[in-house]
Amino acid sequence: MNQVIETLLNHRSVRDFEDKPLTWEQVETIVASAQAASTSSFLQAYSIIGVTDREKKEKLAEVVGNQPYVAKNGHFFVFCADLHRHAVVGEMENVDVTSPIESTEKFMVAVVDASLAAQNAAAAAESMGLGICYIGGVRNNLEAVRQILKTPDHVLPVFGMAVGYPASLNDRKPRLPLRHVYMENEYQQDEQLYKKQLEEYNEIVAGYYAERTGGKRRDTWTGQMASMLEKKARMYMKEFVAKIKMNIR
Amino acid sequence: MNQVIETLLNHRSVRDFEDKPLTWEQVETIVASAQAASTSSFLQAYSIIGVTDREKKEKLAEVVGNQPYVAKNGHFFVFCADLHRHAVVGEMENVDVTSPIESTEKFMVAVVDASLAAQNAAAAAESMGLGICYIGGVRNNLEAVRQILKTPDHVLPVFGMAVGYPASLNDRKPRLPLRHVYMENEYQQDEQLYKKQLEEYNEIVAGYYAERTGGKRRDTWTGQMASMLEKKARMYMKEFVAKIKMNIR
C-alpha cells in the first residue's frame, strides 16, 4: 500500500484542534492541491474563502450551529460553488450567459467542482499530519453566511472545512459494505438482497457504537438515517439557491 | 513535498489507455479509497457502478458523445448521487422520508458525496500509476444512461470515470491564479481587480496553447468559456432531475 492510499484510508474527521495557525506555505500547498483537481470543461466553477479574522470565525461558529471547532482550528476554509466568475466572463466577452449559469446543469457542475477541489485539499492537509472536518453546517443559515463572507449572486457556500493540528482523534466509522455501494453493470435490481445488505450493515454499525459506549448505545444505520431524515432539515435550500440565481432553469 | 501532494499536483486527464483491464484488487482498492472520504451526516448518498460488459461500454461511449476512451480503458466507473438507498431506509424504518430526499438540500448532499468519493478514487488510481478521466458526458443523455445502467428514481449518474494504464500523457493545463480562486475573509469586492486577474490569466492560457500549436492557437480562457457557455448545453437537466424525483422541493 502506498502513502496516498494509506492517507486516504486513514481519514477520520477531527473536531478538536490545537490553537496553532497554519503557515501561509501550508495554506498555499492545500489550495494548490485543490486547484490541481479535475474541473468540468475547464470551468473552474468554485472559489475558496479562507477565514482568518477572529470575529468572523466566531460569528460563523455561531451561525452554523455552535460548532466551536469552526472558530478554533488552524485555518478555516469555505468552499463555494461559483458561477459569478462566469457572469463576469460574459460581461468581458459581451456574451449573454445568463441562462446557462442559472441552469441546474451548471449548478451541479459548480457543486462538483467545489467538491473535487475540497477533497484534494483534505488529502493534502492530512498528508501533512493535519486533521480536517467538513462543515456542512454552513448550509444551516446561508443568509447569514452570505452576509459574513459577502458573496455575490451565483456564489453558493457549499461547506466549510476546518483544518489544523489534531488535539484528539476520532475512530473511523465503518462504511457501507463495499459490495453494496459498488455495483457492476447495472444498479442492484434485487430489493430483497439490497435490504439484507443494509441489515447486515446495521449489525456492524450497532456493534461499533456498543463497543465505544460499553453497550449503552446500539444505533443502527437505517435507524439513525430515518430519524435524521424525519427532521426535514434545510428545506429552505431550493428557495435560497434560486434567490442567488442558481438552479432555476 | 510528500507523495500525496506530488500525486495530486501531478494530475492530468488521460484519454488514451492501453487495452489492459484492472484487476479486482485494483478496483477494490479504488472503491475502498472512495468510501473512506467524508460523507455528509454519515448519509453515504452515492453509489458507484463499474461497467465491465463490452456491449454496455460501447453503448455508453456512443451516448456520451462518441468518446472512444469510455469503451477502451482499464475500468469504467459511473458515480451516482444516490438517495434511493434512503427511500429504502424510510420503508424499512416506516418513516416518511419523501420530502427530504426530494429536496434541493439532499440533492446537493448526494452530488457532494459522489464527488468526494470520486476524487479519492482518482487519487488512489493515480497513486498506483493509473490514469483517469472524468466523463461529464454521461450528462449529455441521461435518459439513455439511465436505461443502460437501470438506475431507479432518486439515483442520478453525475459523471463517469475512465481508469486505466495511460498510453499517452497530456500536459497539465494552467489553473486560474491561486490568489483569484483563494480569497481571504470575504469574496473579492473589487470587480476591476477581479477582471484584471482574469486578463492576466488569459495571457497565460493563450501562451500555453500557442506553445503547443506553434502559435496557431491562441485561445484565452474567458473567450473559451464564453463560446462554450453561449451554446447552452444540457438545459434539459432541471426537468430530468425532477423526473427522477430529485431537487424538486
TrEMBL record, chains A, B:
4Fe-4S in keyword set: no
Keyword flag Flavoprotein: yes
One of the record's GO molecular function terms: oxidoreductase activity
Stored InterPro entries: Flavin_OxRdtase_Frp, Nitroreductase, Nitroreductase-like
Gene3D superfamilies in the cross-refs: NADH Oxidase
Annotated coiled-coil segments of the chain: none
Pfam families attached to this UniProt entry: Nitroreductase
Limits of the Nitroreductase domain: 10-165
Domain of life: Bacteria
Keyword tags: Flavoprotein, FMN, NADP, Oxidoreductase
Family: Belongs to the flavin oxidoreductase frp family.
NCBIfam families, per database record: PRK10765.1 (NF008033)
PANTHER family in the cross-refs: NADPH-DEPENDENT OXIDOREDUCTASE, OXYGEN-INSENSITIVE NADPH NITROREDUCTASE
Protein name as annotated: NADPH-dependent oxidoreductase
Upper classification of the organism: Bacteria, Bacillati, Bacillota, Bacilli, Bacillales
